[in-house]
UniProtKB/TrEMBL annotation:
Entry keywords, A to Z: ATP-binding, DNA-binding, Nucleotide-binding
Ranges of residues in domain DNA mismatch repair proteins mutS family: 322-507
InterPro entries in UniProt: DNA_mismatch_repair_MutS_C, DNA_mismatch_repair_MutS_core, DNA_mismatch_repair_MutS_sf, MutS, MutS2, P-loop_NTPase
UniProt KW Nucleotide-binding keyword: yes
Record bears the keyword DNA-binding: yes
Annotated GO biological process: mismatch repair; negative regulation of DNA recombination
Protein name as catalogued: DNA mismatch repair protein MutS
Residue ranges crossing the lipid bilayer per the database entry: none
Length: 514
């Protein structure tokens, strides 16, 4: 499936959504977006996107802020005895608050979150617990417990004591106070001449000068270190206790992350829907595809940014009466773009995204979308272009059924035209008898006649303006097209005498001459 999505350039849609997401959760979901497992699941996201779009267009939101990623912290908290850092717990606090703030909004718009707004604040009681024990920067509050309050009091008194003891030494020329961890020292310049009884503690800050701990400060500094160690032990015990509480709410916290992921993806989908002037498709179980006024999303956005012409709308209907469209026409007529548009919009609908159409959009429950587009040759596996196409057809024929959509570009090419046409006709007949739906492009004339006579196939073509000698990029159903290769070659600048000679050869070929 991923190979088919790649050929349709679905990665471009994923990237657009990822850029529109506000959180790391939604961005990950956008990067991994794939067709939903069922029509019902796709419809849920489709409806959530619709609800989010209504909120955005009315100015009510929802607007998700940038959020920290707490998933690694939740995995760590699952281990008994673990202690999350204060910063990790404050990140968790931030996410919890956003969930709590979003709940009233989601309760008024239940389609936004099918799982229910209650999943947004199932662990909200942790907000108060974290606030009571941690500062906004993640540091443990000095009054987080009676024991900590007492220890910090002792620490303050001890620190003031060593500072008083050091005061007499600061009168020395160039001497400064410097804390080396919990030990107060003198920072003395290089070449300092006075004699000070004490313990040398290495170089000064930046390698300038040196540190000396006066002997009369050693006992006080030892006490400071001991008190600081006790404070750190109490801090770790408190962080471990908070982490234990987090562990008891892991299920609710995971539900919160899942809910924020869904909401972020829905809001991003709503923004994309607005940018594309899109609308939800009607999702049905029958294998049918109706697109009225469909346009390729990437071409819409490129045109809006001043790159490329405005994309022409495409009208397509594939159903029981018209199961497989065989599209012909000139090389520059837009056959491949039409094929990609049909495939991409089908996949987008299966994901639950809105579609850029001006009229109806009905998308059936195609459980498989097979794509053969571009050059599948592989140097690594010594596959020619034709062999590569055969490998794709083999995979298709093994799995295709009446809920399969096929999109085959230039079927039958890469080998002798007669053999290619014969193989293409056999493949199309086989697929049509299975009830497969799809769209196929070709330049091979025998396939047009075959499609005209086959009940399961329908000719279609890209319209060409013979007056202006240029394609209109419009798909017309029921009419076989001409490749117009010589006309296109002349318009693209090949010498007119060469094209005239080619026309002579073409007449000879049609008449059976040499």
């Amino acid at each position: 499936m991923e190979a088919d999505l790649k050929k349709l350039e679905f990665e471009g849609i994923r990237r657009l959504l990822e850029k529109l997401c506000a959180t790391p959760y939604g961005a990950d979901a956008a990067r991994n977006l794939a067709p939903a497992p069922s029509v019902a699941a796709a419809r849920q996201l489709q409806q959530a996107i619709g609800a989010a779009r209504l909120g955005l267009e009315s100015g009510e939101g929802p607007v998700l802020p940038e959020l920290p990623d707490i998933r690694a912290a939740l995995r760590q908290a699952a281990t008994p005895g673990a202690a999350l850092s204060g910063a990790a717990l404050r990140n968790l606090h931030r996410v919890l608050r956003v969930g709590k703030e979003l709940r009233p909004f989601v309760e008024r718009r239940p389609l936004l979150l099918p799982a229910g707004a209650a999943r947004l604040d199932g662990a909200a009681e942790l907000i108060g617990r974290i606030d009571a024990q941690l500062l906004p920067n993640g540091a443990v509050r000095e009054d987080a417990s009676p024991e900590l309050r007492a220890l910090h009091g002792e620490l303050k008194t001890a620190r003031e004591g060593v500072q008083r003891d050091l005061a007499s030494h600061l009168r020395s020329d160039g001497a400064k106070a410097h804390w080396a961890g919990q030990r107060l020292c003198l920072h003395l310049p290089d070449g300092f001449r006075e004699e000070i009884r004490g313990v040398r503690r290495g170089a000064g800050p930046g390698g300038h000068g040196f540190l000396v701990e006066p002997m009369e400060l050693v006992a006080g500094n030892n006490r400071l270190e001991k008190l600081a160690g006790s404070v750190e032990q109490h801090n770790q015990a408190l962080l471990r206790a908070l982490t234990d509480e987090v562990r008891g709410h892991l299920e609710a916290l995971q539900q919160l992350v899942d809910s924020l992921t869904w909401l972020d993806l829905a809001v991003a989908g709503a923004q994309l829907s607005i940018h594309l002037q899109a609308q939800p498709a009607e999702l049905v179980d029958d294998p049918i595809l109706v697109l009225e006024g469909a346009r390729h999303p990437q071409l819409i956005l490129a045109h809006a940014e001043g790159h490329g012409p405005e994309p022409r709308p495409l009208n397509v209907r594939i159903d029981a009466e018209c199961p497989i469209l065989v599209v012909t026409g000139p090389n520059t007529g837009g056959k491949s773009v039409s094929l990609k548009t049909v495939g991409l919009l089908t996949v987008m609908a299966h994901c639950g995204l809105h579609l850029p159409v001006s009229g109806r959009a009905v998308v059936g429950n195609f459980q498989r979308v097979f794509v053969d587009m571009g050059d599948p040759q592989s140097v690594a596996f010594a596959l020619s272009t034709f062999s590569g196409h055969v490998e794709v057809l083999k995979r298709l024929l093994e799995a295709a059924d009446d809920h399969t959509l096929i999109l085959l570009d230039e079927l039958g090419t890469g080998t002798d035209p007669e053999e290619g046409a014969a193989l293409a006709m056999a493949v199309l007949d086989h697929l049509a008898r299975r009830g497969v739906r799809g769209m196929v492009t070709t330049h091979l004339t025998p396939i047009k006649a075959f499609a005209e006579a086959h009940a399961g196939l329908q000719n279609a073509s890209m319209r060409f303006d013979h007056q202006r000698l240029e394609p209109t990029y419009e798909l017309q159903i029921g009419v076989a097209g001409q490749s117009l290769g010589l006309l296109v070659a002349e318009k693209r600048g090949l010498p007119s005498d060469l094209v005239a000679q080619a026309r002579t050869y073409l007449e000879q070929l049609h008449s059976g001459g040499a």
